[in-house]
Amino acid sequence: MKAVVTLSPEESKRLIAKAMAAMPEVRHALEHGIIGLARCTTNAFVAEELIGRPLADRGAYCSGFFTARGACALQGRFQEKLLVLDHGEERWLTYEQGNVAQFIERMDKDDIIVKSGNVIDPEGRVGCLVASPTGGEIGAYLPPILVKGIRFLVPMTLNKTVAVPLERMIDALGMSKIDPQRCHGLRCGMMPMPGTVITEVEAIRQLTGAEATPVATGGIGSGAGAIMLVVDGADAAVDAAWRLVSAIREKGEPPLADPNIACADCYIAAQPGLGNRCSPIARSA
């Protein structure tokens, strides 16, 4: 049996979040360890699945982002608090209070850091845009993840797939090569994210046992960024996948709006030493 399902970007995030919340290693860490949810909008959905209630503003659970205007950074006062689950206890951190880095000394292979990236290459490798030369959040997390063996989960919607090898993107985005006056938004570099990637395909497999094949992405209007998948497998598995996706679609996930920004007092414009600047287009907001 086969079925064809279509998901908006937000519905994809919900599907992936449900799969991540059900992973045995996540359930174990939720009770016995530490789970740090870095700031990215996909993690807003993961947080909701783990704590069982909605966040006030999913679109503000991020630091860097990009819209049709280009890459940008959300100022601290607009950011949703970051969630760390410490043996099941919710720890909510404002921008001023920091992020998951302050828990890393206590973390090991049974603990988890979750962060989404910006792009998937044809081999399934993930890259993360970084505006700060010090590496931003991923720059703070990656060395201890690799050295201590902390489990690194990377939820990714397949509409972020680009048909270019990751190393080529990293080379192309060398910040020193980019004229800030010829850049829509912030100048960014890119860092690789060597974690366990969970897409819609893995989510459907984990939750239902069915296999999913992406066949189309990027429609128009309400279909902008949407993905179509063919679901295949045993009748019971395909039926379970159909019911799962249908339930997500019936409940509905509102589109994420552009985050609030205040260009007039942006901290990046005030600190040119960060090595990046907004373009004239962004500064005119």
Structural write-up:
This protein is α+β, with helices and mostly antiparallel strands. 31% of the residues lie in helices and 22% in strands. The chain has 9 helices and 14 strands. The chain starts with a strand and ends with a helix. The model is unreliable at 280-285 (pLDDT under 50).
Quick summary:
The protein has helices spanning 9-22, 24-32, 41-51, 136-148, 166-172, 200-208, 235-251, 267-270, 280-283, and strands at residues 2-7, 34-37, 64-67, 70-73, 82-86, 89-93, 112-114, 119-120, 126-130, 151-155, 189-192, 196-198, 211-217, 227-232.
Class by alpha and beta content = alpha+beta
Count of individual helical segments: 9
The amount of helix comes to: 25-40%
**In terms of per-residue confidence, which ranges show pLDDT below 50 for 5 or more consecutive residues?**
280-285
Sheet having the most strands: 6 strands, mixed
- Average pLDDT works out at 91
- Measured between the Cα atoms of the first and last residue, the distance is 51 Å
Summarize the SSE layout with pairings.
Layout: E1 2-7, H1 9-22, H2 24-32, E2 34-37, H3 41-51, E3 64-67, E4 70-73, E5 82-86, E6 89-93, E7 112-114, E8 119-120, E9 126-130, H4 136-148, E10 151-155, H5 166-172, E11 189-192, E12 196-198, H6 200-208, E13 211-217, E14 227-232, H7 235-251, H8 267-270, H9 280-283
Parallel strand pairs: 2-7, 7-10, 10-12
Antiparallel strand pairs: 1-14, 2-5, 3-4, 5-6, 8-9, 9-11, 13-14
Helix pairs in contact: 1-3, 1-6
